[in-house]
Amino acid sequence: LQIFEYNGSAVVAMVGKNCFAIASDRRLGVQLQTIATDFQRISKIHDRVFIALSGLATDVQTLYQRLVFRHKLYQLREERDMKPETFASLVSAILYEKRFGPYLCQPVIAGLGEDDKPFICTMDSIGAKELAKDFVVSGTASESLYGACEAMYKPDMEAEELFETISQALLSSVDRDCLSGWGGHVYVVTPTEIKERILKGRMD
Amino acid sequence: MECVFGLVGNGFAIVAADTSAVHSILVHKNNEDKIMLLDSHKLIAASGEPGDRVQFTEYVQKNVSLYQFRNGIPLTTAAAANFTRGELATALRKNPYSVNILMAGYDKEAGASLYYIDYIATLHKVDKGAFGYGSYFSLSTMDRHFRSDMSVEEAIELVDKCITEIRSRLVIAPPNFVIKIVDKDGARTHAWRQSVQDVTTASV
Question: Which GO biological-process labels does this protein carry (chain A) (predicted)?
Answer without folding.
Answer: proteasome-mediated ubiquitin-dependent protein catabolic process
